[in-house]
Write a structure and sequence with these properties.
heterodimer, A: about 170 residues, mainly alpha, Four Helix Bundle (Hemerythrin (Met), subunit A), 2 domains, 8 helices, B: about 425 residues, about 70% helix, about 0% strand, globular
Chain lengths: ~170, ~425
């Protein structure tokens, strides 16, 4: 039998919170409530990052997703007339396709977990001493080992951003 | 009895952390009440008034009377409000503001009582200190947004929207200002950043004046303080996001605003003004500066007794003289060499934070409020480009000054 320790309890609690709040996100009628449950989901995932000694990811997850993107989400939702949105049907025409896709993904994940070591290359967790330099490790990975892919990805994002701004401007005129 | 209790604390880090949290929380709550009093007094003097004078001598008990009044008031929930969100919104604001203090270092000397070492005067020293601060302090906005939306009323909603836009814009500029510090200090831990300033012998503000200016403006905007207090501009929005709040919940929003004011002052002092370091620490001929705490309390005693002589009410006169006597006793205790050296860090940290808080009040008394489009223009067209330029310039200078940058990176990798 596996020994249950404190980190494991924390991991299961955070995962349960993430799953429950994710379900709440898609079942709430009020869009603001959905957004708040999504914030809680993002928080629990940040907690899982922290459990894995990825402090930098933990902080960035909260700064970017919770502190930035979700604030803008709420900002937009507040400008929408919620009374109309709440009365609309909660299922769109694509729900059947979505269910099939979700089931296929679940099957793949279950099979992958069932295969365990045979299916995945599991990297052993870094020793505790290396984990303290998590930020530097990420910096070295991004700006030395994978310099070119990162630059290409950032260029793509920049193009997408400029495109979005141009399209938004054209609509105003 | 005391010794065994202290030893117990030193042995159990979780209990020790809890005790430190309680100490920081209670000291901060007391300080908050008196910042409100200070603000009312200073603003009053700037506007040639007297300010609160009724409760206690010179109104010094006003700081206790106000919270009491607010707690006893009725807590009204508007009938159309989203009840749950309306109730938790102020709590989110206050909790986020207080949580950030977990990463602020207040001093450098270990706290030693009766020979038992209780560690540094800070709650935790994480290697992502700055990121933690940025992350948690950005959560306070949810209290404002949700409070404004849940009130189901026009003014609060507009105030909340303004606040969200303002915070998101200025957070970017503030972050840019901090990147310059990171480039200089090579660390994200606040303790390391202050120690780096000590080893360099110069505070970051002299290396990063532009960064400091940007951070200061962003900090004022993020705390919704005048001249950027658009979310609660009373001439346009009644009271902004907290229009519908009353009683204790209103005071929670109030507390959150003042806590974040103390907070950004603490961060500015730590990052730019040398944290707990004494001015001219390296100059031996200026070593007498370590007696500043004694002089400050003696001066306070003199000022209070001079004021007390003019007071007409016998009871108030007595109280003021008693306070002056306490100040003299405190000064005498601080003159004891062991105490003098022990409190240096905390004294200089608090003194610098106080100067910042005074400046915040000063700005409110002197600057007129910005218009909303001016605020956005300043944020996006001046502060963010300036911040970017500052980051690029700092990075270039750091790279240029480093003897062998490639070798340094390799050394970091192999360490």
């Amino acid at each position: 039998m596996m020994e249950i320790n404190l980190p494991q309890i924390a991991f299961f609690a955070l995962s349960a919170l993430a799953l429950i709040s994710a379900i709440m996100v898609i079942t709430r009628r009020n869009a603001i409530h959905s957004a708040i449950w999504l914030i809680i989901t993002l928080f629990s995932v940040a907690g899982v990052f922290l459990m894995l000694h990825a402090e930098f990811l933990f902080a960035v997850q909260i700064i970017l997703y919770v502190g930035g993107i979700m604030v803008l989400f709420l900002f937009v939702i507040m400008l929408v007339n919620l009374d109309v949105a709440a009365k609309q049907s909660q299922f769109s025409r694509q729900w059947f396709v979505a269910v099939v896709t979700a089931l296929v993904l679940t099957a793949e994940l279950v099979y992958g977990i069932y295969l365990d070591h045979r299916g995945f290359l599991i990297i052993p967790p870094p020793p505790a001493a290396a984990a303290t330099n998590n930020t530097q490790a990420i910096a070295v990975g991004l700006y030395q080992t994978y310099m070119l892919p990162v630059e290409i990805a950032s260029l793509l994002l920049l193009v997408a951003m400029v495109g979005a701004v141009v399209m938004a401007k054209r609509k105003f005129e | 009895m005391l010794d065994s209790a202290l030893q117990f604390l030193a042995d159990h880090s979780l209990v020790l952390a809890t005790v430190k949290i309680l100490v920081v929380f209670s000291v901060l709550s007391g300080v908050l009440a008196y910042i409100v009093y200070l603000e009312r007094k200073v603003l009053a003097f700037m506007q040639a008034r007297l300010g609160p004078m009724r409760v206690g001598p010179w109104g010094i008990l006003q700081a206790i009377a106000d919270p009491l009044k607010l707690i006893l008031k009725e807590d009204i929930i508007p009938s159309g409000a989203d009840k749950t969100l309306f109730l938790i919104a102020p709590v989110i604001s206050v909790a986020a503001a207080f949580t950030v203090f977990a990463a602020i270092p207040f001093g450098d000397k270990d706290i030693v009582i009766h020979g038992v070492n209780l560690g540094l005067p800070l709650i935790s020293n994480t290697n992502i200190g700055i990121l933690f601060i940025l992350a948690v302090s950005s959560l306070g906005i949810y209290g404002i947004i949700l409070g404004g939306w849940a009130s189901n009323s026009h003014y609060p909603l507009l105030g909340a929207l303004r606040s969200a836009a303002q915070l998101v814009s200025y957070e970017v500029a503030g972050g840019m200002a901090i990147i310059g510090i990171l480039l200089i200090s090579h660390s994200m831990s606040l303790v390391d950043i202050v120690e780096k300033q000590q080893s360099m012998g110069v505070w970051n503000v002299f290396l990063q004046p532009v960064g400091f200016f940007i951070y200061l403006v962003a900090a004022i905007a993020e705390t919704n303080r005048s001249p950027f207090d658009l979310p609660e501009a009373e001439s346009e929005l009644t009271a902004g996001f907290h229009t519908e709040y009353s009683g204790f919940r209103f005071s929670l929003f109030f507390m959150a605003e003042y806590t974040s004011m103390v907070l950004v002052s603490c961060i500015a002092v730590t990052l730019f003004w040398g944290g707990w370091l004494r001015p001219f620490q390296g100059v031996a001929s200026l070593d007498f500066l370590k007696f500043t705490p004694v002089v400050v309390f003696l001066a306070a005693a003199v000022a209070i007794s001079l004021g007390a002589r003019k007071n007409q009410v016998p009871m108030e006169k007595l109280v003021l003289f008693a306070i002056a006597a306490c100040c003299v006793l405190l000064a005498a205790a601080l003159a004891y060499p062991l105490v003098t050296s022990a409190i240096q860090g905390i004294f200089w940290f608090s003194a610098k934070v106080f100067i910042f808080l005074y400046a915040f009040i000063w700005y409110r008394g002197t600057f007129p409020r910005y218009r909303y489009d001016q605020l956005m223009n300043l944020g996006w067209r001046v502060m963010i480009p300036l911040g970017l330029a500052n980051v690029i310039a700092t990075a270039a200078v750091c790279y240029w000054l480093q003897p062998h940058p490639a070798a340094a990176v390799l050394g970091m990798l192999t360490r």
